[in-house]
C-alpha cells in the first residue's frame, strides 16, 4: 500500500511543491518526528491533561514514550504503514496517544466523530478498507463495542477492534503497548498523515488526504497568527477529531508550540468554566452556538475566567450582534476563524480593530493562499462583489481520496478547490462569508449533506419523495427540515415517526431532521429539478 498522495488522490504538481518548499512552508517535518523533538527539547513540560473522571497528565516525554510503545504494539499486531485505522474516540487522552502512535508508523487515522453511527462508520470501514477500528466502550449512552462487532462481521479487512475501557469481546487498548524493537520506518513528510472528513454535499462523506508537510504548515501559520507559544494552555471543547479544534490552531498546533492541551469531556459552561479556572486556560475554540451559551453564562459565573486571553469562534455563521457581546462577557479577545478541512483557513488578526473582528471572517493564513471570487461561469467578479470562493495553496488539497468523479466537479482544471461558499473580499483582504452555494446544511458547525438524509427517508415505504433543506435558527444558525411527499396509497405518517425511522437506521443524531413537513408537491425549477432555494425561502420565518 502506498502513501504517496499522487496515487490515491491528486497531489500538488512538482512546480508547486518546489515553490512551497523553497518558500519554507513545507519543512520536511512529520508528526512522529515533531513529538520526538519536543520530548527531547522539554521532556518534563506538561503536554496533555485529561481531567475526567480522574485527572491524568502526560509530559512530552511520557506522550512520546507512550506513542512509541503503542506504535510497537500496533506493528506487532500487523498494522503497517499505509493501513487505514478508523479512530472514533471522544475527548480522552487515548485519542492523542493513538493518533501519534499511528503517525509514527505511518498508518492513517480516519477521524470519525463520536456522534457517528452505523451508516457513517460502515462507510468509513468499507471505503477505506480499514484494518482496525478504535472505540470507547460506551459514550453518551451508546455501546460502541456492539457496533464494532457488526463492522467486523461485515468487513473482512477489519481485523482489529481496540477499546478504551472494558473491551467486551474485543481487545483492550491498554493491552496493546509493548517495547519497540527498533526505530520505526515512518512516513516521509510529503506522504499522507491521515484522512479527515469533509462536510459532504453528496451522500456519504468524502475523505480528505492531508500530508505531514501541508498540515504542519497550517499549524505553524495558525500558531503565529493566534500567538500560540509554550505558555499556551488550550482547552479542547469541541470533539477533538474536528479539523477546527485539531488544527486552528487546535491541539496539534499547541503541541507543536510546546504548550499544554486540556481535553474537556463536554462543552457546556458547567463543565468547561471550572476547567478554565482550575487549568488556567488561556485559549479555546468554539462554534457559534456554544460561544452564545458561554457569553450568556459568563457574567453570572462564580468561576474565575480571567486566565482566558483568546477565544476563536468558527465553523458556522456567527452573528455580528453575538460577536459584539463576546469580548465584554468573557473578558478576552475574540478571533473569527473561517476554515475547512480541505485546507484554507482564514483568521481575523490580533491587531484588527473590533469592527473588523465582529464583521468579517478573516483573511488567509498564507501569502500563497490564492483566492479567486468568481461568478457562475468561473469568471472573476469585480473586486468587492460577491461570488463563489475558489482557492489553491500550500495546505489546500488538490483532490479527495479515491474520488475522481467528484474531484472533477470540486476542483478546477488548474487545481483550485471549489469551496461552495459565497464570499466577498474587503480592501484589506478580509473575507465576508455571505452564504453558501453548495447543497449542505450547517447545523451549529456540524455539516449535513441533505442527500444522505434524503436517501434514508426515501427508504421508508410510505414515502414518495423527500427534500431536506436548511431553515434559519436563532441559536444553531441553521436547522434541518425534511419536506416529505407521501405515497397516495400510504397510511398517514407523523413527523415523529419519520424522525424515529431515520434514527433507527443508525445515523449521527445531528443529521436527524429537526422538522418534518408533509407537502403535496415541491416547488420546481425551470429544468424540473427540486428548487432547494425556493424551499429554503418558503421556510423563512415571516
Ligand atoms: O470545517 C470547519 O468548519 C472549520 C472551521 C474553522 C477552522 C477549521 O480549520 C475548520 O475546518
Automatic annotation (TrEMBL):
Positions of the AMP-binding enzyme C-terminal domain: 452-529
Coiled coil stretches, renumbered: none
UniProt record similarity statement: Belongs to the ATP-dependent AMP-binding enzyme family.
CDD domains recorded: 23DHB-AMP_lg
Protein name as annotated: 2,3-dihydroxybenzoate-AMP ligase
PANTHER family (UniProt xref): LONG-CHAIN-FATTY-ACID--COA LIGASE, SURFACTIN SYNTHASE SUBUNIT 1
Keywords assigned by UniProt, alphabetized: ATP-binding, Ligase, Nucleotide-binding
Superkingdom classification of source: Bacteria
One Gene Ontology molecular-function label: 2,3-dihydroxybenzoate--[aryl-carrier protein] ligase
Signal peptide bounds: none
One GO BP: siderophore biosynthetic process
Limits of the AMP-dependent synthetase/ligase domain: 35-401
Keyword Kinase: no
Amino acid at each position: 500500500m502506498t502513501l504517496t498522495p499522487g496515487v490515491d488522490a491528486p497531489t500538488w504538481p512538482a512546480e508547486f511543491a518546489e515553490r512551497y518548499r523553497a518558500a519554507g512552508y513545507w519543512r520536511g517535518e512529520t508528526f512522529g518526528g515533531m513529538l520526538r523533538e519536543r520530548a527531547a527539547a522539554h521532556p518534563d513540560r506538561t503536554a496533555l491533561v485529561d481531567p475526567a473522571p480522574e485527572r491524568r497528565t502526560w509530559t512530552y516525554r511520557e506522550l512520546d514514550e507512550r506513542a512509541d510503545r503503542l506504535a510497537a504494539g500496533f506493528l506487532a499486531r500487523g498494522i503497517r504503514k499505509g493501513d487505514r485505522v478508523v479512530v472514533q474516540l471522544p475527548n480522552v487522552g487515548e485519542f492523542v496517544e493513538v493518533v501519534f502512535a499511528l503517525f509514527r508508523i505511518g498508518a492513517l487515522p480516519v477521524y470519525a466523530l463520536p456522534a457517528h453511527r452505523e451508516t457513517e462508520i460502515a462507510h468509513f470501514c468499507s471505503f477505506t478498507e480499514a484494518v482496525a477500528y478504535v472505540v470507547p466502550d460506551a459514550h453518551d449512552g451508546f455501546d460502541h463495542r456492539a457496533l464494532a462487532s457488526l463492522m467486523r462481521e461485515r468487513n473482512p479487512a477489519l481485523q482489529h477492534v481496540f477499546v478504551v475501557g472494558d473491551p467486551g469481546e474485543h481487545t483492550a487498548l491498554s493491552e496493546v503497548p509493548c517495547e519497540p524493537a527498533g526505530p520505526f520506518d515512518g512516513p516521509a513528510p510529503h506522504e499522507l498523515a491521515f484522512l479527515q472528513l469533509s462536510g459532504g454535499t453528496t451522500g456519504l462523506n468524502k475523505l480528505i488526504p492531508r500530508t505531514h508537510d501541508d498540515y504542519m504548515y497550517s499549524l505553524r501559520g495558525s500558531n503565529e497568527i493566534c500567538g500560540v507559544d509554550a505558555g499556551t494552555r488550550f482547552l479542547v471543547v469541541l470533539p477533538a477529531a474536528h479539523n477546527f479544534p485539531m488544527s486552528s490552531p487546535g491541539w496539534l498546533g499547541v503541541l507543536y508550540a510546546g504548550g499544554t492541551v486540556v481535553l474537556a469531556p463536554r462543552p457546556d459552561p458547567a463543565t468547561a468554566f471550572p476547567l478554565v479556572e482550575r487549568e488556567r486556560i488561556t485559549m479555546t475554540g468554539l462554534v457559534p452556538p456554544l460561544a452564545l451559551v458561554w457569553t450568556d453564562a459568563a457574567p453570572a459565573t462564580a468561576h474565575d475566567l480571567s486566565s482566558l486571553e483568546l477565544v476563536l469562534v468558527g465553523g458556522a455563521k456567527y452573528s455580528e450582534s453575538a460577536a459584539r457581546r463576546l469580548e465584554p462577557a468573557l473578558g478576552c479577545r475574540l478571533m473569527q476563524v473561517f476554515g475547512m478541512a480541505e485546507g484554507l483557513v482564514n483568521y481575523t488578526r490580533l491587531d484588527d480593530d473590533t469592527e473588523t473582528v465582529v464583521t468579517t471572517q478573516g483573511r488567509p493564513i498564507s501569502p500563497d493562499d490564492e483566492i479567486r471570487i468568481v461568478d457562475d461561469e468561473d469568471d472573476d467578479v469585480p473586486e468587492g462583489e460577491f461570488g463563489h470562493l475558489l482557492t489553491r495553496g500550500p495546505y489546500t488539497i488538490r483532490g479527495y481520496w479515491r474520488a475522481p468523479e467528484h474531484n472533477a466537479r470540486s476542483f478546477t482544471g488548474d487545481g483550485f478547490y471549489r469551496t461552495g461558499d459565497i464570499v466577498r473580499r474587503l480592501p484589506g483582504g478580509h473575507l465576508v462569508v455571505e452564504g453558501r452555494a453548495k447543497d449542505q446544511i450547517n447545523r451549529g458547525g456540524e455539516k449535513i449533506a441533505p442527500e444522505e438524509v434524503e436517501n434514508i427517508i426515501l427508504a421508508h415505504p410510505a414515502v414518495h419523495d423527500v427534500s431536506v433543506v436548511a431553515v434559519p435558527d436563532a441559536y444553531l444558525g441553521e436547522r434541518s427540515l425534511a419536506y416529505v411527499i407521501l405515497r397516495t396509497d400510504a397510511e398517514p405518517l407523523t413527523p415523529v415517526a419519520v424522525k424515529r425511522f431515520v434514527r433507527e437506521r443508525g445515523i449521527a443524531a445531528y443529521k436527524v431532521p429537526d422538522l418534518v413537513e408533509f407537502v403535496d408537491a415541491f416547488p420546481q425549477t425551470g429544468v424540473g429539478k427540486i428548487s432547494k432555494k425556493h424551499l429554503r425561502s418558503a421556510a423563512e420565518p415571516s
